[in-house]
Every structure is written in C-alpha cells, then in structure tokens.
Amino acid sequence: MNSLWTLLDWILPSVRLSDDLEDRYLTDDGYSVASTLTAPRIRGQYSHELRRDWTRERDRDRERELDRERARIAIEDREKERQRAQLLERENAALQQRVAALERDLQSARQSLATFSVLSSPLPPANTLSATPRMYRTPSPNPVDLRTSYDSLLSSYKTAHRALQERTEEVASLKTFLSKTDEWSGAQLLQALRDLNAEIVQLAASVAEEFASALDRRVDLVRQSDRELLNSAIGPAMTNLLVTRDHSGDPTLVQFAIQAWEVFCVGRIMNAFCFGLPADVDQFLGGLFEQMNRTEPQATASRWRALTYNHSRRHLPLRPDAPSGSPPATFLQLNDTNLRGLLAVLALSGCTDSRGVHRDPLRSRFGAGLARICERAEHIAGAVREGVMSSVFEVSWVNAGNVGRRDERWFDWATMENVYAGHGSERSKVLCTVEFGLACVRHGSWPDGDGAASKTSGTTSGSVNGNGVAANGGAEGLLARSVLLKPKVLLESVMDIL
C-alpha cells in the first residue's frame, strides 16, 4: 500500500505543476516549456524518494526477521538451560537419597558398636547366665567385623557428603555463569544510545549557534597543540576544513566538528574493557575476554566480563579530595579533556569571543552538558558489559583520526549512514562520525535478507568498538554480527555541498 501511494505521489505532482504553469510558459506553438523542463526533475526526485522508501521497507523486513530469529534462539537457549537445571536437580536428589541411606547405615553401625560395648562389659554371675534359656541367648558379635563395617560406612558417608557439597557448589556456580537473563534489552540499549546522540547534537548545535557571530577568519588564534589534538581525534581533513573555511555565515561544519569530537572523546569509554585502567592492563583484559568468547559458552564469557568489570571499576582511584561515591579520577580528567577539545574546535574555527577561547567561561556555560554526555556514555558502557548476558553488543563508530593511506575508510552503506544521503557521491571516504551506532554479535549465524549467513572472523578493527566480539563455543572464530543502528558519518564529498 505504501508503494502505491508513493507511485501516486510521483505521478500527481508532476501533473499539477504542469497545469499551474501551463498558462504562464506557453510557447508560440502552444506547448508548455515549464512542464517540459520541470517534470523530469520532479520525476527524478520522487524516483529517488521511492527507492529510498523501498530500501527502508526492506531494512524493516530484515529487522523483523532478525527479531524473530533472536526470539527463537532465546527460546531454544532457555529450553536447554531448563533441561540442564532439571538434570542437575535429579542428580542432587539422588545424591541426597544416597547420603540419607548412608546416614541410616552409619546410625545402625553406631548402634551395633553400642551393643558391642554392652556385651563387652563384665559377665554376670554364672548361676544367672545358666538360668537364661539357650534359645534366648544372643551370640556374641565379632568386634573386628563390627569395626571394619563401621569404618567402611563412615568412609562412604564422608565421600558421598563431600560429593554432594561439590555438586551443590557446582549447581550454584552454573546458575550464575549459565544464566542468560538480561537486565537490558536491545530496545533499551538502542533508546539509550539515541538519547546520547541527541544530547551530543543538542550540545553541538547550541555551541555553534552561540558563537556563530564571533567566527572571524581574519583573526588567527590557532595553536599547534589545538591542531594536533583535533588531527588525532576528528582527522586531518576535517581539521583542515575548520581552519580554511569561513564559518561566520554558516556554522554547520563547526557543529559537525563538535559532534565528531564528542564521539571520539566518549567513544574511548565504549572501546575500553574498563575505562580508567592502565592501558596495558585494559588491553590484556580485552584480549583475554575475546579469547574466552571464542572458546567458552557465551553466557560464561559474558558473566566473567561482568564480574571483572564490576570489581575493576570499584578499584579505580579517586581524587584525593573527592568524597566517597564520587566518579573515578579518570572520568573527571575525561571531562577536562572534553572541554579542552571544545576550545580547540572553536579556536580553529576563528572564534574571537572571550567566552569561547577561555576555559572557565566555557565550563560555566557548557560544563553541565559535557558532564551529562560522559555520564550517559559511562551508563551505556556499564549496561553493555554488566546488563547483557545472552549476546554481545558493540557501540560502533568510525575513527578517522590518525589514519594512514592504507587505512583510509570508504563509505559502506551496509554498516554506515550518510548524513547527506542523496546529495553528493557516496563513493567517498569517511570524513568523521557524528553519531554512534549499535551492533549485536552472537554465537552461530543469523540469516540476512538474502538468505545468507552474516559471518565474520576475528575481532573488529579500531574503527569499531573492538571490545566484545563474540564467537561460538565450537568452531573458533565464527561470528554473527547484526547492525541494529548504523553510525552516521560525514563524507569527504560534503566539501562540494557546503
């Protein structure tokens, strides 16, 4: 039905415009020039919109198919876990029955020993013994046999009791490590990430709008340290556009540069195993988790990561003067670095307003917004590592900073979204990322829209969050990755548009 209305919208506007312009642009021979010139352009525009609607409908069908497949896999996993739990419960019941039987045998042996001790007491007088009829006399048990039987029962009881304790501990640990109950769903993570993107866009738009009138290309306040900082964050090409373009009339590039800086700055929280740990320790733990994910069940590896992340974060150092419960010192340093990058973007854009080139006025105006962005990023990172056990989620973005000639990243419509879709050529390199994306990686494979399995091997590169790439517990290196939200990128072809 959507396609039918789109087709009607494609036909009717061209007819309506032709009728409206017919009286104004008639030639001598009676033909309408305006209709002849504008109709192909309108048809081309609506043809492009029609193709885009078809593409969106196809993407929605793929997402619905992926949701159904994920639901089926989750049901199968829960059924397997339920059967395993029932098997363990039956084994526990059998062990408990065995321990109860051994306890009864042990009690019987103790009673026999008590009887033996009574029989071993001094004998009564002979006349009393002879008065007892022979048929009522109890034969004297062999003490050696009784002691051997007692020792054997006691040894069996201890062995069974120890096995029961070990099995009980194993069941408790399995319930912890094999649990696939997620505290965060994929929809919740998507919404949290969209909120973070909206917070970044709002901050960048506010800064660009407030200082647009103070952007003067004739004044050069650029420092080499600012240029080096942004080169490694948003890339040399975007940095050069900030320095060479006049932004007083249109601060759009300044807004995009601030968004790209925020993505790079808080993206370090997403990329790290536990942001704040020493770099070598964090890299070691990240590699260990990736290896574990390739060889162990996913729930086990995810639970290990959750426990390690939780305990690691508790031991992150605080500032000496910070009260208990304050954020770790590394997050406070990240806020300072975030403010430093914002100053660099404004300086390279030619800002002459004293409120935009000094740290304290800018902090008092936008410090709260920068802190909220870091807090949201930290919250999402914790949810990804501690709140999801059934799969691994990746917050994805393309890092264009410090990219060599061989590492230049070209636009890929399957994994990225062009900010200026439909304008300019998409056969272009990525200039920077302005909004985060989200992907889900699980064991095995999911069918994509063409019926083929989406598989990849190894870990993602540094352009995408390399922390948390999963593999199945069998064939090492087999991965299934589904893109839930494409990161929005700015292409180098935008230079021909802006």
Structure, described:
The chain has 13 helices and seven strands. It is α+β, with helices and mostly antiparallel strands and 498 residues long. The chain is elongated and about 115 Å long. It has a four-stranded antiparallel β-sheet. It has helices at residues 2-22, 33-119, 126-131, 143-177, 186-210, 224-234, 236-244, 252-271, 279-295, 298-314, 329-348, 354-357, 359-386, and strands spanning 392-396, 417-418, 430-435, 437-442, 455-456, 479-485, 488-491. Residues 14-39, 118-132 and 445-475 have low confidence and may be disordered. It is 60% helix and 6% strand.
Which descriptors apply to this entry?
about 500 residues; about 60% helix; single chain; 4-stranded antiparallel beta sheet; alpha+beta; elongated; 13 helices; 3-stranded mixed beta sheet
List the helices and strands and how they pair.
Elements lengths: L1 H21 L10 H87 L6 H6 L11 H35 L8 H25 L13 H11 L1 H9 L7 H20 L7 H17 L2 H17 L14 H20 L5 H4 L1 H28 L5 E5 L20 E2 L11 E6 L1 E6 L12 E2 L22 E7 L2 E4 L7
Parallel strand pairs: 2-7
Antiparallel strand pairs: 1-4, 3-7, 4-6, 5-6
Helix pairs in contact: 1-2, 2-4, 5-8, 5-13, 6-7, 6-11, 8-11, 8-13, 9-10, 11-13
List low-confidence stretches.
14-39, 118-132, 445-475
Strand order of the largest sheet: 1-4-6-5
Q: What profile does the largest beta sheet have?
A: 4 strands, antiparallel
Report the order of strands and helices.
HHHHHHHHHHHHHEEEEEEE
Helix content: 55-70%
Beta-strand percentage range:
5-15%
Shape: elongated
Tally of separate domains: 3
What oligomeric state do the depicted chains represent? single chain
Number of strands: 7
Our measurement of the CA-to-CA distance between the termini, rounded to an integer number of angstroms, reads 37 Å
Give the helix/strand class: alpha+beta
Radius of gyration: 36 Å
Number of helices: 13
**Mean pLDDT across all residues, rounded?**
75
